[in-house]
């Protein structure tokens, strides 16, 4: 068993060496986002539900950062960069590669080095590109403003558990695929997810439901009016807890975890 104080810390993951405001400048900004969101979550847990528009925006921004900040996103960026690098090298050809390497290194490059590079580019695991902290941060800063709407624009269902406790992990914002397509391959993203589960505390879970279900109930209503109703909190509500719903949250948390799953050892949990 590993204490969360150790398991949740990954040093220098967002370090920006040489930044004029310090290498931990982005960590400080994330701390501010977390602090603001923590205040909103405390309000919701205390009974302030639905949230105000301002608090909804704060929580939505926090969830967007949570969705993008983890090691899973960086791994995905690594995989995309590796694929692109391999394709570019394969398409450039030996002569262009030799000239490019010679110019960047300031000295001639042997045919053997070029040949090995081309061979590696042609193999599935031949090359590996690593995303820097700066690259990951830029990715988040570009996408968060676009992704906030997919959190803010979903009806929120708050569920308070007592006899059952919720797990969490290092990537707690879990996308729930449409159950109608469980037996058919269908990618799931923020736009088409049936729902999004977020364990806010050990006892309180947030389910962000699908906007399309509301649209189907009132197909004549203009989309902008429906979205306005959602953002205003009109469809937010609390739902009675159940063992089935606790399993639902914990199963998606476990399925979304990359390395760590956290629970309170002194409380009953659904880890098993």
Ordered list of secondary-structure elements with their pairings:
Layout (H helix, E strand, L loop, with lengths): L3 H4 L17 H22 L6 H17 L1 H22 L1 H12 L5 H12 L10 H20 L3 E5 L7 E2 L4 E3 L18 E5 L4 E5 L2 H7 L5 H9 L5 E3 L3 H14 L4 E2 L10
Parallel strand pairs: 1-6
Antiparallel strand pairs: 1-5, 2-7, 3-4, 4-5
Helix pairs in contact: 2-3, 3-7, 4-6
Query: How large a portion of the residues is in β-strands, by DSSP E?
Result: 5-15%
Q: What is the total tally of β strands?
A: 7
Which structural class should the secondary elements be placed in? Answer: alpha+beta
Overall average residue pLDDT = 88
Largest sheet: 5 strands, mixed
What is the H-and-E element order? Answer: HHHHHHHEEEEEHHEHE
Distance from N terminus to C terminus (CA atoms, Å) equals 15 Å
Query: How large is the count of helical segments?
Result: 10
Give the helix level as a range of percent: 40-55%
Model regions low in confidence, pLDDT < 50 over at least 5 residues: 4-8, 267-272
Strand order of the main beta sheet, please?
3-4-5-1-6
Shape: elongated
Whole-number total of structural domains: 2
* Rg computed from alpha carbons, rounded to a whole number of angstroms: 23 Å
């Amino acid at each position: 068993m590993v204490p969360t104080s150790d398991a949740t810390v990954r040093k220098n993951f967002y370090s920006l060496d040489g930044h004029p405001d310090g290498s931990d400048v982005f960590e400080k900004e994330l701390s501010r986002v977390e602090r603001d969101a923590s205040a909103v979550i405390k309000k919701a847990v205390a009974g302030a539900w639905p949230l105000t528009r301002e608090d909804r925006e704060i929580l939505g921004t926090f969830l967007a950062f949570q969705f993008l900040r983890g090691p899973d996103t960086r791994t995905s960026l690594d995989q995309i960069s590796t694929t692109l690098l391999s394709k570019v090298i394969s398409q450039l050809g030996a002569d262009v590669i030799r000239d490019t390497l010679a110019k960047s290194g300031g000295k001639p490059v042997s045919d053997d080095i070029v040949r090995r590079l081309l061979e590696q580019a042609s193999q599935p695991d031949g090359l590996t590109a690593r995303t820097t902290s700066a690259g990951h941060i830029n990715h988040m800063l570009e996408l968060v403003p676009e992704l906030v709407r997919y959190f803010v624009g979903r009806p929120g269902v708050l569920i308070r558990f007592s006899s059952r406790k919720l797990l969490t992990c290092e990537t707690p914002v879990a996308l729930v695929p449409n159950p109608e397509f469980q037996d058919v391959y269908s990618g799931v993203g923020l736009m088409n997810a049936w729902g999004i589960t977020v364990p806010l505390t050990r006892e309180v879970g947030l389910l962000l439901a699908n906007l399309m279900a509301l649209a189907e109930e009132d197909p004549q209503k203009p989309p902008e009016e429906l979205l306005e109703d959602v953002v205003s909190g009109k469809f937010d509500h609390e739902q009675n807890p159940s063992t089935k719903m606790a399993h639902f949250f914990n199963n998606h948390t476990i399925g979304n975890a990359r390395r760590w799953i956290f629970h309170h050892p002194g409380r009953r949990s659904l880890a098993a």
